[in-house]
Specification:
The complex is a heterodimer.
Chain A: H1 5-16, H2 22-29, H3 33-45, E1 67-75, H4 84-91, E2 96-101, E3 108-114, H5 117-128, E4 134-141, E5 147-148, E6 151-152
Antiparallel strand pairs in A: 1-3, 1-4, 2-3, 5-6
Helix pairs in contact in A: 2-3
Chain B: H1 10-14, H2 19-28, E1 34-35, H3 47-58, H4 71-85, E2 95-98, H5 100-112, E3 118-123, H6 129-135, E4 139-144, H7 155-159, E5 166-172, H8 184-197, E6 200-204, E7 229-234, E8 247-250, H9 253-266, H10 272-283, H11 287-309, E9 322-323, H12 334-345, E10 347-348, E11 350-351, E12 363-366, H13 371-386
Parallel strand pairs in B: 1-10, 3-4, 3-5, 5-6, 6-7
Antiparallel strand pairs in B: 2-8, 7-8, 9-12, 11-12
Helix pairs in contact in B: 3-10, 4-10, 5-6, 5-9, 11-13
Classes of the chains: A alpha+beta, B alpha/beta.
Chain lengths: 167, 387
């Protein structure tokens, strides 16, 4: 699907800040408020704008630190459906945050979030490894998130260093 | 020591302190100020350029470079200018890497001026032009660009200022402080005027990367003007590298050789690590520059429309990152407006009169500030105007 220049601009602006008002977006792209609202509705309807969410630094919240693991999964693809069927079986679990088909040494990259290492381990041994098509799994736990989806969690001195007035 | 006379040079004593200084002093002591008074990008230099400078230090590139700058950098500048602005300069004999566009302006003026030579400065203008002309021994002659022509200078306005001592015109497009950009048509008219009066042009093109609506046209790309142009550009604005102090000047061989004489005695060369950073900035692809430009354009659209909505009429600036709205409707002078806005609402702007007499009745607002800051500043300006 091909987007117009204005549509593309709206997508870029909202991707950076989903909470910006439609009025401000309208001014930024030089359309009327009504035109802008219609344009956003259209993009929502077509699922270009899938949904709006918030990046949370859970590690800051006591008792909710959680554990994230990236699991390399080797599978046997099935005739006719390839990797899609097993991918679907995996992504339906609510613990699974992302599933990607990869080139290289393994087939699927699965990202799991759980409350504890135990919980993740249980998921891998009980649910994931027992699937028929799964040949092997390698689990990597994430120790610290520095940057996530383009957001740096603890930016170093992000303040404005410019002098207040300059020519 | 008995002092019977001033030891200071007359030229320096006669220089007026910049009107911007006063606002800096006022704003610097206040808490919670949102500054729209900043004449530089709000972006930090790209990490790849910063990383290249760090690497150059680690590898020990800490000595002088050639006077004119690293040949590798001049080669890159040459192909950049060709690709982006369709002007062709020989990296070996027609390009000098300078300490910011400011030093480029300085050596350009010193290379061409004899005592008493006149240089036309189109106001509202960057605050350094007239003082730099004076310091080079010349006489700055102010000509006012006016709001009725969207601050685009007209040749009939220039005509009156021409004398037999007029040597050059200083041009800045997109302009600081008005944001006005001259297009092909206006530049062609200007070129005919330059030709007719046999003048040189110091074309300050430091904001060339920040042209939002139309492709940028370099004055040197206008037919016949390459020989008459000292083209000044740099990395400060387009590449967000103000603190590195790195610019360059392009001109024909004769002018370049003259400027290089001054540069080699007065400066030796531009800082080496900054040159390595700039090299990476040019080689590293245009994504960073294009992203910044996109972001400025959106903020410009937002800010200028919001100004017009609250009754501060403002033409759409074609480039740079300044809006130059009229504040005449408030009944205040530029200075009164800027001072009261700062004290009452803690928003710093620069009064238009510091850029020349035709800037009176206007303020310069830099929109190189985050959207959150611009939104909050707009709220405060609205409250101030409605009082």
């Amino acid at each position: 699907m091909k987007l117009s220049d204005k549509e593309l601009e709206v997508v870029e602006i909202l991707e950076k800040d989903a909470r910006i008002s439609a009025d401000d977006v309208a001014k930024m792209i030089g359309l009327s408020l009504q035109e802008t609202e219609e344009l956003i509705k259209k993009l929502e309807k077509e699922k270009v704008l899938v949904h709006y969410t918030t990046v949370v630094d859970w590690s800051k919240i006591d008792g909710h630190e959680g554990v994230t693991a990236m699991i390399d999964v080797k599978v046997t693809p099935k005739r006719g459906v390839g990797f899609d069927e097993v991918a679907e079986r995996i992504y339906r679990f609510k613990e699974v945050k992302s599933v990607y088909l990869m080139s290289g040494a393994y087939d699927l990259s699965v990202i799991i979030e759980g409350k504890s290492m135990n919980e993740v381990a249980r998921f891998v041994s009980n649910k994931l490894s027992t699937l028929d098509s799964v040949l092997s799994t390698t689990t990597h736990f994430i120790l610290k998130k520095y940057k996530h989806d383009g957001t740096i969690f603890e930016p170093l001195a992000d303040d404005d260093k410019r002098i207040v007035v300059s020519p | 020591m008995k002092q019977t006379k001033s030891y200071l040079a007359k030229t320096v004593e006669d220089l007026k302190p910049s009107g911007i200084r006063k606002f800096f002093d006022l704003a610097a002591g206040m808490e919670g100020v949102i500054s729209l008074g900043v004449g530089e990008p709000d972006f930090v230099t790209s990490w790849s350029a910063r990383e290249a400078a760090i690497l150059s230090l680690e590898q020990g590139y800490t000595s002088y470079t050639a006077n004119a700058g690293l040949l590798e950098l001049r080669n890159e500048v040459s192909s950049y200018m060709k690709k982006r602005f369709h002007v062709d300069y020989n990296p070996k004999s027609e390009i000098i890497i300078t300490v910011g566009a400011s030093q480029a302006l300085d050596i350009a003026l010193r290379a061409i001026l004899d005592p008493g030579d006149e240089v036309i400065v189109i106001e509202p203008s960057f605050v350094s032009y007239a003082p730099l002309v004076s310091l080079a021994g010349g006489k700055p002659v102010a000509v006012q660009a006016t709001e009725e022509y969207d601050f685009k200078i007209q040749t009939h306005q220039l005509e009156k200022a021409i004398t037999d001592r007029t040597k050059a015109i200083m041009l800045c497009s997109p302009n600081n402080p008005t944001g006005t950009m001259l297009g092909q048509k206006e530049l062609t008219e200007l070129a005919a005027f330059i030709e007719k009066h046999d003048l040189l042009v110091l074309s300050d093109e430091i904001y060339a990367e920040l042209a939002y609506d139309e492709p940028y046209v370099s004055f040197a790309a206008i037919e016949g003007m390459r020989q008459r142009t000292l083209l000044i550009n740099g990395f400060s604005k387009g590449f967000a590298m103000t603190g590195w102090r790195l610019g360059f000047v392009c001109a024909n061989e004769e002018l370049t050789a003259a400027m290089l004489k001054i540069h080699q005695y007065a400066m030796m060369c531009a800082p080496t690590m900054a040159q390595y950073a700039a090299l990476e900035a040019l080689k590293g692809g245009r994504e960073d520059v294009e992203d910044m430009k996109k972001s400025y354009r959106r903020r410009r659209n937002y800010f200028v429309q919001s100004l017009n909505e609250i009754g501060l009429s403002c033409h759409i600036p074609g480039g740079a990152f300044y809006a130059f709205p009229s504040i005449v409707s408030t009944g205040l002078s530029s200075e009164q407006f800027a001072e009261q806005l700062l004290i009452e609402e803690k928003v710093a702007v620069v009064p238009g009169n510091v850029f020349g007499s035709s800037g009176e009745g206007h303020i310069r607002c830099s929109y190189a500030s985050s959207m959150e800051h611009l939104q909050e500043a707009m709220k405060r300006i609205k409250r101030f105007v409605e009082k």
